[in-house]
Amino acid sequence: MQAIMLAAGVGARLSNNDETLLPKCLLPFDGQSLLARHIDILKTNGISKLTLVIGYRETDIKAELISIDAGDFVETVTNPKFRDGSILSLGIAAQTMRSGDGILFMDADVLCHPDLIQKLITSIADNAIIYDTDFESGDEPVKLCLKAGRIVDFSKKIDAEFDTVGEWPGFVKWSPAAARHIADFIDHKIDEGSMELPYEEAFRDYLLNPEVAQIDCLDITGLPWIEIDFPEDLERAHDVILPKIISKS
Questions:
Q1: Residues 48, 238, 53, 56: what is their CA dihedral angle, to the nearest 10 degrees?
Q2: How high does pLDDT run on average in the chain?
Q3: CA angle (55 as vertex; 49, 61 as ends), nearest 5
Q4: Which of 79, 138, 189, 212 lies at 20 to 30 Å from 232 by C-alpha?
């Protein structure tokens, strides 16, 4: 299984458009960058390769990869239009999506307990997604909605009846067939000029396809994690989430 990580964005909501600040994947936690933490987790769980999509301050990210001796484990691909929609960044990784391997997709700006990623990798299902039912509702979180155990919506704004809802932490496992389907969807959207779309739209297209077999939906409620989008997220990551991760390790 290979991994794809998106780390191309500017992180304007966190930095308030101050581009002297480092990319979010280089934020330090307990003496280690988010990127280094992710790579350690992936290696521990048998991932064979990481395709890292970069753009904003790519030189700094490449320097970190050298510093942590990532070597051949990480292949970097650059999105020169990193200020546009994130669907472009995932499109840059199309070769990996069509590699014929299973794909672990992950956002780079999430501080999490290693078990969160391990649960996905060790799922016996070809396709698996995680969700956390303990979250603050609103328009910001991407929500996974289930009814009778099946996915009925995947979006920030919900348009479906459901009996279970949880926030998606930004990680999912795709089968080779699913990854190819998603790559084809992205190519189509980019070709028609829909480059402002978030990559989640490509995932939603697959998850809600009636022809798709049951997807393993894993409840990770209770495991500490946080997506770092705003200054208050960074503060909570240091003061609350990191101590919980350390205490549970």
A1: -150
A2: 94
A3: 60
A4: 79
- The most distant pair of C-alpha atoms in the chain lies apart, rounded to whole Å, by 49
Give CA–CA dist 156/134, Å, rounded. 16
pLDDT in tens, 64-120: 999 999 999 999 999 999 988 899 999 999 999 999 999 999 999 999 999 999 999
Give the whole-angstrom CA distance, residue 36 versus residue 45: 14
Cα–Cα distances in angstroms (integers) from residue 29 to residues 23, 226, 242, in the given order:
14, 13, 8
Are the CB atoms for 181 and 127 separated by under 8 Å? no
As to burial, measured by CB atoms within 10 angstroms (0-12 exposed, 13-18 middle, 19+ buried), residue 13 is middle
pTM over 0.85: yes
What's the token pair of residue 9? 């964005």
* pLDDT > 90? residue 213: no
Domains of the chain, with CATH numbers?
Answer: 2-248 (3.90.550.10)
Which residues 6+ apart lie within 8 Å of 2 measured at CB? 47, 48, 49, 50, 51, 96, 99, 101, 102, 103, 104
Q: What is the DSSP letter of 62?
A: H
**Which residues does residue 51 pair with via DSSP β-bridges, in sequence order?**
4, 75
pLDDT at position 49 over 80: yes
CB within 8 Å of 26: residues ≥ 6 apart: 33, 34, 35, 60, 61, 64
Q: Which amino acid is at 78?
A: T
Q: Do you know the residue count of the chain? A: 249
